Prior knowledge:
Layout: H1 3-10, H2 20-24, H3 26-31, H4 35-55, E1 60-63, H5 72-75, E2 80-85, H6 88-98, E3 104-108, E4 121-126, H7 136-149, E5 150-160, H8 164-171, E6 180-181, H9 183-192, E7 195-201, E8 210-217
Parallel strand pairs: 1-2, 1-4, 2-3, 4-5, 5-6
Antiparallel strand pairs: 5-8, 7-8
The protein binds S-adenosylmethionine.
Amino acid sequence: xxxxxxxxxxxTVTTEQVTIDEAVNYEKKRFSRRYRMRYLxxxxxxxxxxxxxxxxVGSHIVDIPCGNGRFFGVFxxxxxxxxxxxxxxxxxxxxxxxxxxxxVEFIRSDISSMxxxxxxxxxxxxxxxxxxxxxxxVRLQSLKELVRISKKYVALSFYNRNCLRFYLRKIxxxxxxxxxxxxxxxxxxxxxxxLRVVQRIxxxxxxxxxxxxxxxxx
Length: 218
Ligand SMILES: C[S@@+](CC[C@H](N)C(=O)[O-])C[C@H]1O[C@@H](n2cnc3c(N)ncnc32)[C@H](O)[C@@H]1O
């Protein structure tokens, strides 16, 4: 493994390699027990549906990181769906969930360097990875790789620092999980990767940190 790749992984993958049981149960455990997580799951799937409708069923979609296939139900009808994740066990769990339809391929790869050709997909969808990235070098390198692969759109989520939840946890001295950045910071990095903002959801983060953004190649 190259030093650059190892560096990227050290600054991206924050959790230890998940076991196959954890991978299979990721969606059930994380998104079904608490009201808040069920709400976020609904929001994230609604966002995925919106971007899917924007590009249409005739599109090639790259879901990176696909985890255990939480968005398969939304993207499964795409002309082609490429599901990418660094974790072998997450990919195995995704395969178990999705089966092996002809329009779907699974690839084990780091986001910084994917074995996919330039401009091969209409949409790169990246949910719940940016808040694991520990510095701007990693964020920018990842954005550039998403730009390289995408013909047009990149849709991603990040943790927005400008929300009540972040400051409340800070004031109360509670543990802050994940790396938060401002929306202005994401716009700046996106600009450096030659992406412009098409839409931000929500327009203003009040309590929740989860923020979605649709970016287009400039
Ligand atoms: C919080 S999960 C999100 C999965 C999926 N997007 C979802 O929302 O259900 C984060 C995923 O990112 C993967 N991951 C972490 N670092 C990565 C990297 N550098 N390249 C590709 N995948 C990575 C992990 O294996 C894990 O499956």
